[in-house]
Predict the 3D structure of the following.
Amino acid sequence: MTIRPFHLAFPVKDLEATRTFYEQVLGCTIGRTSDKWIDFNLFGHQVTAHLSPGEVRDAQANQVDHKNVPVRHWGVILEMEQWKELAERLKQQNIQFVIEPYVRFKGEVGEQATLFFLDPSGNALEFKAFQHDESIFAS
């Protein structure tokens, strides 16, 4: 099965701050834009920031591996080297992590490198990596 790019639309409170963050911090390229939305290429996936300040809200958290994981979050599963490069780039940009980069479930089924941070509108993003893709859905 060939995996196709996904599309995700999400609310933001400031398009210019969002553009700067996704373009300069995450390295996204810009697709189509308007005065109400921006399409970003996020690791080959189309994510669209829509100006909708009233929909922006803080995410609640649940305990996972003794950490407060934002319930409402999204991101990309990267290859391990990509994840390490992103983690280093985020550290160099002084991004404040919700959860610092670390390996979760070490030695267990589902072991994964993960990190969480917020975009300028408070949307929680998680980027993770597995040593082997077969582990992504392992139970």
Remarks:
- The chain has two helices and ten strands.
